[in-house]
Design a protein that fits this description.
The complex is a heterodimer of chains A (231) and B (125). Chain A is built from 12 helices and 4 strands. Chain A is mainly alpha-helical. Chain B has one domain (25-117): Cytochrome c-like domain (Cytochrome Bc1 Complex, Chain D, domain 2, Orthogonal Bundle), CATH 1.10.760. The chains are: A mainly alpha (231), B mainly alpha (125).
């Protein structure tokens, strides 16, 4: 009798829990799908690219670190200084083109349980496993100085990406939090072939060598560990 | 016989219309590609004042500068777009776009740049 009561109470609690637990899939459909592509494919024409309002999330599970997603959704900070599509947020200024910040919108904040549920659901979206599995990254490190030299001087990545607030280009996502935000295999694969992920993206394929891809991945991890910005 | 002449005339008219239309569509495509990929550094007006220029050690080329642009042949401009700055001993900050554009699109961009600078190779003002 006691056992039956315990089982009943357990079942009741479980069903109550399920009823009240945040439904990540429902939140994604109701709140995120308006701006984010959750099903793919990525834009294959310029018109589709220009119409994109926010990063594609249909491969979020191949791209993001789960713990970062969960935290960011509760306290979002701008990652793309010029938004998306970047050219829609540019205006002519006295010293050249500048970002029209008034045209940028803030990302909604989610409550902790909703953020956990959404992050969990997003991490299930992994249609690009083939690309990330092809990246074999050995553990290792690089000095910040050497990494920065490759990033800035030899490969010119700073043309489009910031490595600290106020330093670097603005048309691409900031990279001073990339090491915390992104899976290392995604970073490597994206550098190797941006068009494999996003055929019309305005990041070119620079045909970076394997050695330099490893160096850049390690640099971005070091950078995000040492940098206090965006934490 | 008259019917056959009419068919040939119609075919020639259609062909002529297509040839006439093609430069316009190529120009549109070049402008669209420029807007999407080039303005981030070279600016919405092509004057080298893009949003990315702030911290660059070498500033982006001003495509409206007839004097500078007339110093580059169409072949050199094609090469630097396709293979990047280092291919013509220029800055690494100009990346290679060979995986983004087809050769045809790059040729169209060269024509677009000539319109921006209102110049041709060796005929700068």
């Amino acid at each position: 009798m006691m056992l039956r009561a315990t089982l009943f109470a357990g079942l009741l609690l479980a069903s109550l829990g399920a009823a009240f637990a945040a439904d990540g899939r429902a939140i994604l459909q109701q709140q995120c799908a308006t701006c984010h592509n959750l099903t793919g494919p990525a834009p294959s024409t310029l018109e589709q690219l220009w119409a994109r309002k926010a990063p594609d999330l249909f491969y979020a599970g191949n791209k993001y670190r789960a713990e970062w997603l969960q935290a960011w959704l509760q306290a979002p900070k701008r990652i793309r200084p010029a938004g998306e599509f970047y050219e829609d947020h540019i205006r002519r200024g006295a010293k050249g083109d500048e970002i029209d910040t008034a045209s940028l919108t803030e990302h909604p904040k989610l409550a902790a349980d909703d953020a956990a549920a959404v992050a969990s659901e997003l991490m299930r979206l992994r249609p690009m496993d083939r690309l990330t599995a092809a990246e074999k990254l050995e553990p290792g490190s690089v000095s910040r100085t050497m990494g920065e030299m490759a990033f800035d001087k030899f490969l010119g990545c700073m043309a489009c990406h910031e490595i600290e607030p106020g330093y670097g280009g603005l048309s691409g996502p900031e990279l001073y939090t990339a090491g915390r935000r992104l899976q290392p295999e995604f970073i490597a694969s994206y550098i190797r072939g941006p068009q494999a992920w996003d055929p019309k993206i305005w990041m070119p394929n620079k045909h970076v060598s394997d050695a330099n891809i490893v160096k850049l991945v390690r640099y971005l991890v070091v950078l995000s560990e040492q940098d206090s910005h965006g934490k | 016989m008259a019917n056959r002449s009419m068919q040939i005339a119609t075919a020639m008219a259609v062909l002529g219309a297509l040839v006439a239309l093609n430069p316009a569509s190529a120009a549109d495509r070049a402008a669209d590609n420029y807007r999407t990929y080039c303005v981030q550094c070279h600016g919405v007006d092509g004057n080298g004042q893009g949003i990315n220029k702030r911290d660059m050690s070498v500033q982006p080329r001003d495509h409206t500068d007839a004097k500078a642009m007339s110093g580059r042949s169409d072949e050199t401009i094609f090469k630097v777009i396709k293979e990047g700055g280092p291919s013509i001993d220029k800055s690494v900050l100009m990346p290679p776009w060979g995986d983004t554009f087809s050769d045809e699109e790059i040729h169209e961009l060269v024509v677009h740049l000539r319109k921006l600078c209102k110049c041709s190779f060796g005929a700068g003002t």
